[in-house]
Amino acid sequence: MAAQDFNILLATDSYKITHYKQYPPNVSKVYSYFECRRKRGGTQFSEIVFFGLQYLLKKYLSGRVITEEKIQEAKVFYQMHFRQTVFDEEGWRKVLEKYDGRLPIRIKAVPEGKIIPRGNVLFTVENTDPDFFWLTNYIETMLVQMWYPISVATISREFKKILAKHLKATSGSLEGLDFKLHDFGYRGVSSQESAALGGAAHLVNFCSTDTVAGLLMAQRYYGCPMAGFSMPAAEHSTIISWGRSREKEAFESMLDQFPTGPVSVVSDSYDIFKACRHIWGDKLKERVIERSEDSCLIIRPDSGDPAETLIEVIKILEECFGCSLNSQGFKVLPSYLRIIQGDGIDLNSVDEILEKLSDEGWSAENVFFGCGSALLQKLNRDTLNCAFKCSYVEINGKGMDVYKQPVTDPSKGSKRGLLSLRRNSDDFIETVERGVGKPEEDMLVIVFENGSIVQEYTLEEIRKNARLLEDYMAPSQHNQDEPKSLEPHQKHIMNGVH
Amino acid sequence: ITKQCFVIYVVHGLEYHVCQPISIQGSNHPFIIVINCICIISFQVTHYKQYPPNTTKVYSYFECRAKKTESTKIQKVKYDKTVFYGLQYILHKYLKGKVVTPQKITEAKEVYREHFQDDVFNEKGWEYILEKYDGHLPIEIKAVPEGSVIPRGNVLFTVESTDPECYWLTNWVETILVQIWYPITVATNSREQKKILARYLLETSGNQDKLEYKLHDFGYRGVSSQETAGIGASAHLVNFKGTDTVAGICVIKKYYGTKDPVPGFSVPAAEHSTITAWGKDHEKDAFEHIVRQFPNVPVSIVSDSYDIYNACEKIWGEDLRSLIESRSADAPLVIRPDSGDPLDTVLKVLEILGRKFCTTENSRGYKVLPPYIRVIQGDGVDINTLQEIVAGMKKHRWSIENVGFGSGGALLQKLTRDLLSCCFKCSFVVTNGLGLNVFKDPVADPNKRSKKGRLSLHRTPTGDFVTLEEGKGSLEENGPDLLHTVFRNGVILKTYTFDEVRDNAKIRDCDLEESVD
């Protein structure tokens, strides 16, 4: 049930307080929808992962969300905030009286985890009682925050595609893919709540994280007891506190403290290259090679140009420890030794790094990645053009399709009428407008009605929905009339070319 | 070994390293120092510790690093100084009082066992805190006053453990404290925009009236969570008073307090649904209805649902003109474009309105629309486009009095920890009773070098700020330390009201001295 001290009346853009006075007279229904609009000119992200609605519903919208105390608190607040009386006290009291404080709203949504092409309806919102037409867009502000878990899950999955491509090409299998991208973003995100939500969104695609809040979110809202894993790892303070001349002692202590299981040691406090060559590769070499594959040492550079640093580090490690060739003919470090690059990682640099490694003959098996702000913070609502718009109203009992179509920006045009989502005869997902969609074909499912959550998903189901397909880019996931929306590497995969 | 106690480390009899003078706890006898060092070398390390054995204190600090080397991309805005804000929220919400209970320890132990597939959680450490301190955190935080505007590269707060058993606690709280990057960055970026607006407003009108309402927070829907909305919106209100992100006001009331009933205000405004719901052929009816609903306060009407220029020319400029002209200066119609190139759209809208409603020339020779009509640009506004728009308006002889701005994603979301290079680093430890200045200095990036030793912040005789390292700040000749103890052992010792924060962060004349063009 929704949080007790959270006041939904104070969780909206101020101006929405005044909208009940602005709709046409005798309006009895306002129906709105959410999409990740398509931007003209070739989108970078042509499909999205739908995730996060269940969290919002459980935390903020379900159950008894209106009380008399909350109405009074809001009334007093808005009086001061607007410097006049404009708050719709009566309207909210009716919600309290008629529905015991539960919201007379219906939300239909795509199942969580589903992969949907841009430009399609993802969920719709409408009032279920004519008296509460103003409620649909009152909750827009909160629902539009869906942009965040959708965007994190989508970007995280794009990382996975790149990693999968390189891993398959240089090693012949996808073993360990789920652990290739580690969430380092906890400190670089804007709040604890965002850390939890973003952290959970990443766990739709991967199983490695240091953002503990995300694990708890997945546990409490998506029924997964333990969604992600980590390993002991050093940070700079635990190395430099030994003193500049005792980096070797600090490193050795790490190996002593954590003799089994993988251990990651940040090695750039002073000079990453000397640390690799003289400490790991010489003074502590015996200690390193006695570690098993399950207890590998993972060296972490954390400064300098990511690709160049990585290449130089791997070359030094090759000199000191040797390497072998895998079934695809690519070089692999001994199984007790790996590298994790956790600085400066984003979609471009990951691709670039793995490309350069591959050019130099190195398998993607050698490297793990850690990503912080690019995964959880360097995103915004414009990344996937997320928007919520009214598409249909009923006035005097008569339905009318409505829309905006600004002459100054056609890409901001909105959909019209009642909407549904379906797979067409060519197996492409498309949105049907103007209420002509067939109910039996509609992929949108009622998830929330009159204060109750009527459909839930577990993280397990979500992960299944969001998995990469065998050939990564099955044609059914794209609209056929937009082959340009495939990025170059995706086309290569489809054609079997790398 | 000299009288000044330079420490010589003997490392397996092979190397000699002469270190800088350090503070020594327990004894000043030089001989004991050497004995202690030898003991470190042969010491057996125990479980859970990555810190050197017998570490009894870890001291760390937070700064917005200065960029010493030029980055490849040229940043238009320099962000030389930052606004320190948001620590009080973190202290109140997450760190004060009893933060550990037996249940939480048990929960954590189970979670971490699954998460690491191993028992690495420091259960004993947390049980110690529970027993000895009733779950209060034995750390001390010293910080610059909230709202202070401090140049980059200076210490902003320090954190140290107060109990030798809890040396590990300092960096345990790093993750949560580093999230202060967000309110600092929002407040700083918001203030830089205020400086731009102030300069151009002053230049084109001769005064700074209503400056605090010139940049309205539209960012509630574009942030990543409810909590972020509250923190970010409150940070913007350090500099301005107009907001639609209600959550920010709640944060201020709960964690800072103001003498006024509320620190932020808004006005009735339309959104697209309240216009389009009338139907495409009834935009005029929608406009008229809404304007009539709010006769005595400013009302903002989004006018680009179909054609912003037609709306300005025909509907506002002709059909509803007399209705608008009858409004008072306290209750203007504020027309809101919401698409198209921001500068082009603003200029074209002003041009149309200027033709339809006439303009007057103010004391500085710039055009002003009649007081009953204004414009708010709330789409695509960030610090760079803001600069472009006000510069473009000035060039076309339009006073900044005519416009207000709204900003959403750019104000509250399009920011990262890298913008101001916020980071938290260990600078001093005590091991075996010996203090040691520690730092990182990666060969591949001088920007990432950290400060050494105990730190303090001082004012120089010329009024600049300087961070003193290696404990030098304790010498009397350097003047008082501007860092105050705000938190110790679970208790908040010093708080700031939001009024104080605003006062510390206000724009001074020297901030406007940069030339307008």
Structure description:
- The complex is a heterodimer of chains A (498) and B (517).
- Chain A is of the alpha+beta class and 498 residues long.
- Chain A is built from 17 helices and 18 strands.
- Chain A has helices at residues 53-61, 68-82, 89-99, 135-138, 140-144, 147-171, 192-202, 212-222, 236-240, 247-257, 272-283, 285-289, 306-321, 347-359, 373-376, 459-466, 488-494; strands spanning 27-36, 47-49, 105-109, 115-117, 121-127, 181-183, 263-266, 297-300, 324-325, 331-332, 337-341, 367-371, 386-395, 398-401, 420-423, 429-432, 445-449, 452-453.
- Chain A has a seven-stranded antiparallel sheet with strand order 14-13-1-5-3-17-18. A five-stranded parallel sheet of chain A has the order 6-12-11-8-7.
- The longest helix of chain A is centred in the first third of the chain and has 25 residues, at 147-171.
- Chain A starts with 26 loop residues before the first strand and ends with a helix.
- Residues 473-498 of chain A have low confidence and may be disordered.
- With 517 residues, chain B is of the alpha+beta class.
- Helix content of chain B is 34%, strand content 17%.
- Chain B has 17 helices and 20 strands.
- Chain B has helices spanning 30-41, 87-95, 102-116, 123-133, 169-172, 174-178, 181-205, 226-236, 246-255, 272-276, 283-293, 308-319, 321-325, 342-357, 383-395, 409-412, 498-505, and strands at residues 8-11, 15-18, 55-64, 81-83, 139-143, 149-151, 155-161, 215-217, 299-302, 333-336, 360-361, 367-368, 373-377, 403-407, 422-431, 434-437, 456-459, 465-468, 484-488, 491-492.
- A seven-stranded antiparallel sheet of chain B has the order 16-15-3-7-5-19-20. Chain B has a five-stranded parallel sheet with strand order 8-14-13-10-9. In chain B, strands 1-2 form a two-stranded antiparallel sheet.
- The termini of chain B are far apart.
- At the A-B interface, strand 1, helix 2, helix 5, helix 7 and helix 8 of A face strand 3, helix 3, helix 6, helix 8 and helix 9 of B.
